[in-house]
Every structure is written in C-alpha cells, then in structure tokens.
Design a protein that fits this description.
7 helices; 8-stranded mixed beta sheet; alpha/beta
C-alpha cells in the first residue's frame, strides 16, 4: 500500500534547506557509477569529524539520540520516502542538532555520494525484510549491498544491525559470512542480554513489549588481500 503524500510536502522539504540531500538519479543503470555528486563533508558539516551512516532511518529517532550521545561524529541518515524523511529533518532542526544530514534516496546510490573508505560505522535498524524469496536482492544485507558498504567503510569499519525478523537475521548472517565479513556480539534476544548502550526506538519498544525478541549483530569489514 502506497503511503499518502503529506500536505505541503514540497514546501516542508524546501524549509529544511540543506538538512536534506537528494540522491535521485535519472540513470537507473546501477552498473554505471560517477563521482560528480560525491559529498564534500567539510562543506556540509563545517568540520572534519568522522562519518557514521544509518541506512533506513525512518523518522530519525535513533540517529538523533545517537548524535546527542556521540557528538564527536557527523551522521548521514538515509531514507527513501520523502513523507518520512521530512519528519526526521524537521525534528532534527527543532532540537538544534547540527551533526546530522539526511540523504533522500535508495542505498544503491550511496557509492555515488558517500566518499569511499570514509565511514566508521553503518547502522541497519529494522530494515524491511522483503520476505518473498524473489525479493531477496532488495534486502539491505544482500551481498550486492554489502559490496557497496565495503567500499564506503574504512578499514576496520563495522555494520551494526538490529531486527525483529528472525528470517532476515538468519539471511543476514549467511550473507555476511559468505561475503567474508566477520561477526561478533551476535544476540538472539537483545533486551534480555548484557549489552549496554542500546538506543530503543519506538518501533523496537512496541515489538519488544509484545514479547518478540530483538536480534542484533556487528559485522566487521573483510580484510582483502591486494
């Protein structure tokens, strides 16, 4: 079901100014990459702090809390839906958070915009599981996306994933492992583990209160031989 377009959406997006960077490309041949839109972090943020990404940020609750807790980083939060990203950007402006920018578009475009070997971490929080087998390539932990993330992450960089979907979690573990990523801090029930520092989003709290376990892992970028 398609989300109904918000009233005055274009005006609201425009009012967010430089808070939102649009990643639309008319050429949808993903095998053709260019660097003309590569982001200038110093121009965007006004400093040289290291970069952290969240892909699929929704209304931005997680990334806003993370930006407050760890102000030593700059954050790029990715979301496809204008209806959703406008809420995230407006709340960020209202709270006066200066170290977040939002990228409106799909993760398949990221290596056209995010500088290679520049990200410290990537967060994947409650990504759409695309349960049909025929849609597996759309899952954000499919090996095609892992190849993109590997280009963006610094050596030693990590992906932190949380999901309430067991099938997606099992799929992710298989994709990470078969693509050479190391795994650590794997939890099959995050809220009943000894993990500290978890940022609980509204979505996460709702499903946890229903008795559904939250799955979490950290994947380490492969060390490739030259």
């Amino acid at each position: 079901m398609r989300m109904r377009r918000k009233k005055h959406l274009d005006e609201r997006l425009a009012a967010c100014g430089d808070m939102i960077i649009f990643m639309d490309r008319e050429n949808r041949d993903f095998s053709v990459k260019d660097t003309e839109n590569m982001l200038d972090y110093k121009a965007i943020f006004g400093n040289d702090k290291p970069i952290v990404l969240e892909i699929g940020c929704g209304k931005g609750q997680f990334i806003r809390e993370l930006a407050k807790r760890e102000p030593q980083y700059n954050y790029l939060a990715v979301e496809k839906a204008s209806n959703v990203i406008v809420d995230a950007a407006e709340k960020t402006l209202a709270e006066g958070i200066e170290n977040i920018r939002y990228l409106r578009g799909g993760a398949e475009y990221l290596d056209c915009y995010v500088q290679p070997l520049s990200a410290e971490r990537i967060y994947l929080n409650f990504s759409c599981p695309f349960p049909k087998k025929s849609y597996a390539a759309h899952r954000l932990t499919h090996r095609n996306f892992l190849q993109i993330y590997e280009k963006l992450l610094k050596d030693g960089g990590e992906i932190h994933q949380k999901t309430d979907n067991m099938q997606l979690f099992e799929f992710s573990i298989a994709e990470f492992s078969q693509s050479g990523w190391g795994l650590k801090n794997v939890s099959l029930d995050l809220h009943n583990s000894d993990f500290e520092g978890n940022i609980v989003t509204e979505y996460e709290r709702r499903f946890s209160e229903q008795g559904m376990p939250i799955y979490r892992l950290e994947a380490m970028k492969p060390k490739r031989s030259i």
